## 1
Amino acid sequence: MNLMQSLHSLSPVPANQGELIARARSPFWLAPMAGITDVCFRQLMDEMQAGVLISELVSAKGLFYNSEKTRKMMRIHKSPGTIVGIQLFGESPEDIVQAVSVVEETGADFVDINMGCPVKKVVKKGCGAALMRDPAYVETFLTTIKKGIRLPLTVKMRTGWNENELTIHDCVQAAYNSGCEWVAIHGRTRAQGYEGKADWNLIAEVKSRAKLPIIGNGDIRNADQAKQRLHETGADAVMIGRGALRNPWIFKECAGVDAQRSGIRLLNRYLSGLRENYDTRSTLILLRKFSSWLAFGYPGAAKFRKNMFECYSATEVMQQAENFFGQVAHLPSPCFEDNEAFMMGGHG
């Protein structure tokens, strides 16, 4: 049996496939980012009106060992304003199915499978982007998961392993055949990591051929760009990652809502969530990072970031932040330029 015959050999697509995306608040979604899209950041982006929220990637194996740290990564805030998914990676579909029984307890609306992570420690186990090297197995992998869980299933992938292995079309077909609700595509290969440019022309091509919703992702740095990508590719939604770190108000701007930018107000809201969910040390670390992201592009930002890491309490961070953002309040918001390097690493 050849590849395409294999991709069409399994059970028919469920009649309700496609219902989940109709529950999204808007087509401008928060991209899952490892070490970033925890419960506090997701709650903040919910308040900023992100269309869909997805956790950082969670190890299925970590849940087997009842890791408290792993379970914390899946926390969902109270009364979210849109659908929330938990992203998993695992070495076998059986591992994922077992992990989903824990995911269900969080109140998540769907499970997202990570097929995009380029990090060596993930791909060497055959997880993340490594799965894309065998589209026939992808269908078996996803179908086994789909049959073993009750929650809707989605997947996030790259365009392929490298420029000579652009398996995205076959992998999207596999996801459709297995009953996935949508496929989110980061427009880079695994070999690219976060270098070069996301291939939105390829995303548009995939969308033109796909039988399920396609979500585009990669290099969206402002609201105008988000709306342009959505329109030009015909994608069903777009995901915004690093652009939301520099400009957390981007989702409101995409929706045409008055963002009322205030770095201090946002930091106070974020700090409140951190204190509800983390100990003093973790709160300090996360607050420092978020404060530094907000300062990027402003005059004096480098010195501010240096000062951040000399603060030893959340109170000190907020004092430094109030001084800094007070001084730049009269300035226009900095642009996140296409050629500007920022957070050139991560998972997805």
## 2
Amino acid sequence: MASGREGGDMAEEPGSDRAAARFGHVPVFLDRTLELFRPVVDAAATAGRRPVIVDGTLGLGGHTSHLLAAFDDLRVVGVDRDPDALEIATRRLTAFRDRFTPVHARFDDLDLIVSSLPAESRDDAGPAIDGVLLDFGVSSMQLDVAERGFAYSVDSPLDMRMDPTTGPTAADILADYPRDDLARIFRVYGEERFARQIASAIVRRRETDPISSSAQLVELLYDTIPQGARRTGGHPGKRVFQALRIEVNAELEAVENAVPGYLDLLRRGGRALFMAYHSLEDKIVKRELTLRTASRTPAGLPVELPGHGPEFESVTRGAEKASQSEIDHNPRSASVRVRCVRRIDGRTP
């Protein structure tokens, strides 16, 4: 679930991608993101108010820097659980300090995020936003800084915490989880068909030598996964490292909480933009959007009941994918699936 988030630097001009290149790439679907949010900015201007968008996965501020540069009246509340990324993004966005609010939180901490909205960001039902962007996954800084432990290609401590100030590390999970729980994580989150064999090997290994580094784990995977199976499917660490990262950071739990929570915050005409990088995330998003874009009239009635129409309509047709030209420019965009919806029904006070 390698995210298309980007790098940044406080010395760069707003909207510049030179700093982003330091961590390997620029934001995914950037032009399309601006295009999808332009109508909510225009609608707010017509209504005589300043629009507010929550970037729930700020990373190093790439999407937000371009949004703020493109729309002079826009305010962005930028959320990230990684304090290092948040500090860098805040410095990068210094030129927009009067229109940018940084929030150190997991993107599903709706109470804290709502409390950080501008006081006037409301409608008749209470606090409200014009848009939300959720670019799920790991930021480029986390992927590319070896010490964070996300990468299987370099040796480093098995940390994998997006917020390194709290919670168990990947090494803790490998040391403490029962075999059956490890197997479930590898099977469900990593879709690893040798999940039980890998879990059993980890339990045997930790009796004498706990696994604490990425190199140790990769070595175990090479020893455990049959050679014939390693010829396809990429690096043998890919699926297991993904599964551990998801478990360490409770990523799917956060997605489950965030998608309905942000949809409920959108004012009429507001838009939600979701970028998912593997099927588990996308299934959660798709399920909720299917529910919200369907009629609420009981099945079998010949007419739609007043007030029971869909809450949202799809803006994208299904999930949009990156073009080949974008993939060539930014390989991490290859797996992204982008869905966008617009609220068409008012919120109930």
## 3
Amino acid sequence: MTFTDDLAALRQRALAALDETTDLPEVQAWERATLGGKGELTGLLRGLGRLSAEERPEAGRAANMVKVELTEAFAGRQRVMAAADLRDRLATDAIDVTLPGRQPAVGTLHPVTEMIEELSEIFALMGFQTVYGPEVETSHYNFDQLNIPSDHPARDVWDTFLVEGEGEVVLRTHTSPMQARVMESTTPPVRVVVPGRCYRFEAQDASHEWAFHQLEGLAVDERITMADLKGVLREMARQLFGGDRRIRFRCDFFPFVEPGVDFAVDCSVCDGKGCRVCKYTGWLEMGGAGMVHPNVLRAAGYDAERYTGFAFGLGIERLVMMRHGVDDVRAFAGNDLRFLRQFAGGI
């Protein structure tokens, strides 16, 4: 066979093979086998040098025409296969816009934060303003201004985290320092609640954490009595837990109040029968309270003969435990979504 015959046969085979390709990879494989550096047409063109001088020009023109034709055929087939491949991928990835959308995952407030906001609303209806104070506090406000001087034995009761630096700086052990700060900057009457985080270096158990939240309450005015304190706390408990909860006040000692009481609600976890949360007493202590000590009033510049007041501190986590029947305070700081999802469906 002559070179021209071989070229015609190659053209016919190549075009037939190209027509039989069904996807883009097959088209690209055809291009490599036919037009590539080691392709069939390239190998045939290398034989031009073996032709005579008279045959070579005509054979060269014919070979170039075949190469151009096959290249254009490849480009056309590649466009067709690329378009088909795109259609297939679009069909596979198609989205039915008529389907209802997926519900997005939406966060919600932590149960402790929700309790703080609810308490703030409850006390706002009784005339209390919500204020906030620093978590890193000086011993002057954390202890001295609250009738707990450096030589007072009660100062050892608070296992305190000390902060390195000049002077005695601590992580506040209670929200009570805001009593002194508020009274120093406010003229009676005073009615404030102070929510915030507190820190104590103590052992952890089902009802105690080293970092916890309190809500401090303070009211100072003329002729305020213990009956006012009991009325405010009873109303708070009624709005939080309902009228069927039992409330208990017992005498207790706190250096910054006199007289002092502890405020407890019958345990909703065990319905007052006794469990590890209430230490098998049937009561869950909510916090301490009492009449503001005259020394605290005088330290703030108030006339202790004219003004009286009451103060209370409530454990926020314990209130949430009572509300929802949680039996371990450590769960609130665990950030376990399985636990948190029980309080709101949005997490």
## 4
Amino acid sequence: DLRGPAPSRPGGTPAPPGAPAAVVPGAPGVPRQRQTERGSGLRVGDGDVAALRSVAELFRTLDHAYGGGHARQALVRYLEHETEPMLRGTYTEATGRRLFAAAADLTRLAGWTSYDIAAHGLAQRYFVQALRLSQAAGDRAYGSYVLITMSRQAVYLAHGREAVQLARVAQQGIGSAAPHAVLALLHAVEARGHAVLGDAKACTASLTRAERALETARPGDEVPQWARDFDEAQLADEFGHCYRDLQQHRAAAQHAERSLQLRAPAYARSRLFCRVVLACARLGLGELEQACRLGAEAAQQAAEIRSVRAAEYVRDFERRLEPFRDAAPVRGYRERVAALG
């Protein structure tokens, strides 16, 4: 059952400069705050911070292509053995802010990969820690991105009200002067929450705001790294998911197809999700044979990556197939999936 506990609301005081993300004894990789004197003796410079950024990009690429379960443990070990000693080291105030920002990014990613393998409580603790680190870095925009990530988890857990609330807090935190691509992302994620609640009017309003914001974005805009992937392909994906949840099958199919046409192959898991959305839309339109073909393709992809979310998308499609279980295309689908082992 995906309806676990609602994501924790962000709380706690900001970490003071130098407070490391310590690991709770007996629970490897679970972050918390601990106030200590910096004293590891490690001098941290801009090269160290650049290394953290490069490592984050590597893990992000692995996550997109192979799922959160692929390298999550290595990421947690890197946080513990490389990042935390830096946080306990000595550095200038300016370097410290950049260090906290880089640590926030890695910590959010640890939460994201935990979420992808359905370790939801652990993911939430990482997200709250990432919020604190972004506060210590003075990076309100990245704090909003963490809140958006928490909103996505709430959508997945079918906690629509929580998802909308988190998205709105993120919007308030970043303000209306943010880059257009960022505003598009914030509104699109709010739309997903409304769709979970079945509120078509509020969902459409948020999607329209997202679409307008992305249309006014320009190539020369200064967009933070974390929002650069939000493009037409991703917006079409958000539209497709929303219309799936609102059971508007034709619109869901149209947007899912567009997203698949535009999305780069490197985003294997996102393409899988979108393919399942398209399969569900085709099923809703009565196109059983096409739905089963798309579903089988997604099931094969899910078998090749380490993502509980991917497996759950496929299971959701299979639950929707139940009323048609005796039809020939469904029997063919089950045979193809069984052959995957």
